[in-house]
Design a protein that fits this description.
Cyclophilin-like; nine-stranded antiparallel beta sheet; 37% helix; signal; Cyclophilin-like domain-containing protein
């Protein structure tokens, strides 16, 4: 009798493990489909973070394409060679980011973009005392700051890149229209140079 109960218990346990294994592979297929459609999933994010942390992304991607507004002119964000910029490039490479724009107290020198917390971005911050009109920084946790005018600052940032601060660039940033029905401006960040 004990052998029979043990055998039945073992069979139920084995079937349960097989069912969990089947469910796991289905989830992986869904994660891959979600990454292709532009949505992010934790499984897709961990793979991207791993490739960014290995440094392979740093040498492959030298810039990202940034538009201010859905129909904005594309500008190249030239990336720094660090793990923070590599992680951002890795995530953006699999799904473009469309982020709302904010500024501190209606600042006329900078704007920032909050990145969803599901993205794990390494922080390598140091004290920055001067920002120039083309600097882009990462601020922990999950915030990207763009300075479009020179400024004296005292912030803890990781520099992730620079733009070519042309007159056209400055105008595009300052004249970015508010998205109808949303009440905010947006920035669109997508894969760029080096892919």
């Amino acid at each position: 009798m004990k052998k029979r109960v043990t055998a039945i218990f073992g069979l139920v346990l084995a079937l349960g493990m097989m069912a969990m294994g089947c469910g796991g592979s289905s989830g992986s297929a869904e994660s891959a489909a979600g990454a292709e459609s532009g949505s992010a999933s934790p499984a897709a994010d961990s793979t991207e973070t791993d490739s960014a942390e290995t440094g392979s992304t740093v040498s492959e991607v030298t810039g990202l394409t940034v538009r201010f507004g859905d129909e904005g002119t594309p500008f190249i964000l030239h990336l720094e060679d660090n793990s923070t910029a590599a992680a951002i490039a890795g995530y953006v490479g699999s799904s473009e980011w469309r982020l709302p724009i904010y500024s501190y107290d209606e600042s006329d020198v900078m704007e920032y973009y909050d990145v969803p917390s599901r993205y794990e971005i390494p922080d390598n911050s140091e004290t920055v005392m001067q920002a120039y009109a083309d600097d882009v920084f990462y601020s922990d946790p999950n915030r990207i700051a763009l300075y479009y005018h020179d400024a004296d600052i005292d912030e803890e940032y990781t520099k992730v890149g620079t733009f070519d601060a042309t007159e056209e660039f400055m105008t595009e940033v300052e004249d970015n229209p508010v998205l109808e029905g949303w009440g905010n401006q947006i920035v669109v960040i997508s894969a760029g140079e080096g892919r």
